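To whoever is on call:

I kicked off a structure prediction for a single chain this morning and the downstream step that reads the tokens threw a length-mismatch warning. I double-checked the sequence; it's 425 residues and nothing unusual in it as far as I can see. Pasting both halves so you can look.
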Amino acid sequence: MNIKQIHAREILDSRGFPTVEVDVVLDNDVMGRAAVPSGASTGAYEACELRDGDTSRYGGKGVLKAVGNVNGEISEILVGIDVSNQHEIDQAMIELDGTPNKSRLGANAILGVSLGVAYANANLNSRALFQTISQDDRNILPVPLMNIINGGAHAINNIDFQEFMIVPVGASTFSQALQWGSEVYQVLKKHLSEMSLSTGLGDEGGFAPQIDSPVEVLQILTKAITSAGLTPGKDVAFALDVASSEFYSQGKYHLEGLDKTFSSADMVDYLEGLTNDFPILSIEDGLDEDDWDGWDLMTSRLGSKVQLVGDDLFVTNSQRLATGIEKKIANSILIKLNQIGTLTETLDVMKLAKDNNYSCIASHRSGETHDTTIADLAVATSCGQIKTGAPARTDRVSKYNQLLRIESLLGSSALFAGNSAFTKN
């Protein structure tokens, strides 16, 4: 079935900023719709998110240029193409843009169309998205890495690290994992209130209390897990997103909350101390995106103990990942569709990671929408892990609810990744 019409519009994301939504309509009027997320903490090597820069609208954050590119140039070359040709369609947009980082048309414009096409094809075949893009017939349900304490660029507080996540690895099903995460979240809210700490929410639905020390955060989370009747480490472990590029400058890591300045070796020492004291399974962006020597040291020291995730380091980019593989740096990659800009390229990166024993984590952004693509992506690739925030706010919970639907659809064939999802060297 061929594409009859492509139409984009400007909508709002979870932070109240504009983003792109795209409808792809087929000749028989079947439609696919997708919305594009937007990050607050962004890597320097990400594909370009095109913004208008017109300060009279949304403080310059409007996306009418990207919308116009979809409704104009992109539509002109794609109308009439068979919707099942995902690779051909994505490649045509990459070539039309003609830049290394999709800066002419905008990665937000290109991704909206790429995902709208995927949904149109799924709807045409009356199937869920994960079924039509499946790369692994096991269809494993992912372990949720639930960001329940927000810091860094996601909150207005003194916590230097960006995300403190609980990971319900001991659950036997996804639905049980979600239940445990939600129960710990609710207990945590009560504990924070009793401590006279704020229960206001950060960008990703987690709490954003005024705390200075990562150690104190992990102690509070340990208490919440225990109070929820679960065992830290056995039932629920921890994951960190340090997002260290946010506080790295002139070769040093400046942790204002701790009032300390660290070298790369100091940062590795500090992170190793945390892993010795708490059941931490995964550390994301423990060092800066350009600190390759530091990453080499961290991998040699911690790679056999924990999952070391490159987000700003790899930015869902095959070339960046290939460099990491060659240098034997990290052992995991965060997957964000809008970092690279098409579904095809995203799946290619995930295959490259899998072929080289790097784990993958399907991830949201701080600016999200109702769109649930990453839930289907996680199951379609059986990557085993997903980051989509706290069990709060519709923009986060929509992904969890989609995974519940998929689990129900799969029935007895649904598998849950559990501890097996986490890579160590």
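Update from on-call: the warning came from a stale cache, not from the record. Cleared it. Sanity check on the structure: The chain has two domains: 3-126, 140-421.
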